[in-house]
Amino acid sequence: MKTGQEYRDSLRGRNIKVYLKGQLLDSKELIDHPFIRGHVNSAAMTYEMAQDPQYEDLMTTTSHLTGKKINRFTSIHQSVGDLVKKVKMLRMISLNTGTCYQRCVGFDAVNSLYSVTFEMDQKLGTNYHARLLDYLKYWQENDLMVAGAMTDPKGDRSLRPSQQADPDLFVHVVKKDDKGIVIRGAKFHMTGMVNSHEMLIMPTSGYGEEDKDYAVCCAVPVDAPGIIHIFGRQTNDDRKMEGEIDQGNARFGVVGGECVTVLEDVFVPWERVFMCGEYQYSGMMVERFACYHRQNYGGCKGGVSDIVIGAAAVLADMSGYGKATHIKDKLNEMIHHAETLYCCSIACSSEGKPTAAGNYYVDPLLANVGKHNVTKLIYEIDRLAQDIGGGLLATMPSESDLRSPEIGKYIEKYYKGVEGVPTEDRMRVARLLEVMTGGVALVESMHGAGSPQAQKVMYSKLANLQSKKQCALKIAGVKSSK
Amino acid sequence: MNSLKVGIKYCGHCQPQMDTKELYEQLLLQMKDAEFFYFALNENVDILLILNACQVGCASRPKFHGRTIIVTPNEVDYWPVEKQDIVRKVIEKIRKY
Lengths: 482, 97
What we know:
The complex is a heterodimer.
Chain A: H1 4-12, E1 18-20, E2 23-24, H2 37-48, H3 56-59, E3 60-62, E4 69-71, H4 80-97, H5 104-124, H6 128-141, E5 146-149, E6 172-176, E7 180-187, E8 198-201, E9 216-221, E10 227-231, E11 259-269, E12 273-276, H7 282-319, H8 325-350, E13 353-354, E14 360-361, H9 364-389, H10 392-395, H11 399-403, H12 408-414, H13 423-436, H14 440-447, H15 452-462, H16 465-476
Chain B: E1 4-10, H1 20-30, E2 34-38, E3 47-51, E4 67-72, E5 75-76, E6 79-80, H2 86-95
Parallel strand pairs in B: 1-2, 1-3, 3-4
Antiparallel strand pairs in B: 4-5, 5-6
Helix pairs in contact in B: 1-2
């Protein structure tokens, strides 16, 4: 397993092309860029904590391929216990970072692909599963960070990929030969991509035969020829060019440092291709990935919510109203919501079962219900946090004002809360609450792992309304209704 | 006389309600007559001490044929113990070996 430092060093060895605000960054130095370093620090925690005896029970496991101790983020779930530990691991890392650490997307992608390639090979006589196992061994051996690349730009949402005016709005195969394939297109919302080693590309939707060129899964190094990444903007990101306090979470940043990844005729050798034209399995791939990814949110957002709850409570104490009944009531409501999210993730893991390939898969109904709760309850948790935090969160002057020789004394004097708490500490907690409860952090809860409607479609399909109707009719004593 | 060898195993700390490192440090301070190891690095011990940071106590139990002591913030070997008595109780259990 890599240490945190080895992970950072390995990133410097890439020839990755990342543009940020129109400028190409130096590939050796981009991990130090103020816009990017927090996300690198956060991802590095997944390496550092795996080395710590306090966390190894969750952070590590044994490879079912090699028998070696590996980072859990590179593993294939072998039991219900593994599914549960995944959720606990995510909550624990969130408790230590207060943000996204990005490594779950590739983790979920490979677990989905593991069962999909197995079933595809059985039905179609392809050879993808064996290729995936080879790739997985390489992944585990090198403790790689692999970004999961699913969402296409999609253009006109009412049209299928092949109906789009521009065929590149969905990633597709443009050429095949005996050595491999060439792909073109782009992937949006690429969490952790600029600080990953490789990416695992997946289709964005289930396709029909007319769109079979879009049914493609493959692994590519993030610095392969033809790939550029354009780093996304975040709310108040220019604060990262200043001091520390105004960033709120200066060490780890907010969400996952997303980018758009452009794939301009990228060659992929056959040994890294895991689906190519098998459109019948594209929907299965998307669904399995979505369910694994939706499983996560009560873990990671549960942990992030723990920090929001803690920050709101501390700010109330620092401001002298921590003992007020209505504050305690609001904090309890926040706890209730956070633990509800966690319950869903634990439940869908506990109800997991083996696939034909032998790896374990979550209960899709409960995973989707859980993620749908996230799209609501995180907003409620954050609303209550802002209620407790007060208008200070939106109007507080900057760190530069606090440090100013001329006006710093006024900030010190007028932003003081209870006696004994330094003004700077109160400002730090207020800023943390501000960045964690607004802007990109909230949007991520809404759309990460799929928008709410996607979850609703899945659970309405899985919940079996007809059987509920039958049960109701039976209990009501209705005999005539069919 | 050979000193008692105690292997330490932590849970993953997803609900850190007890500082298990602090507990471990207290054991090191108060049990000079015992040797402590991380179980993952040395399984050749007399006692396996599993330290859980919350009452769920979900730390995985590795294969071990000797005496195992399981600690949570409110229990030692599933018997209720007040938080302030945990260290004393664990020492007592180890010494009974």
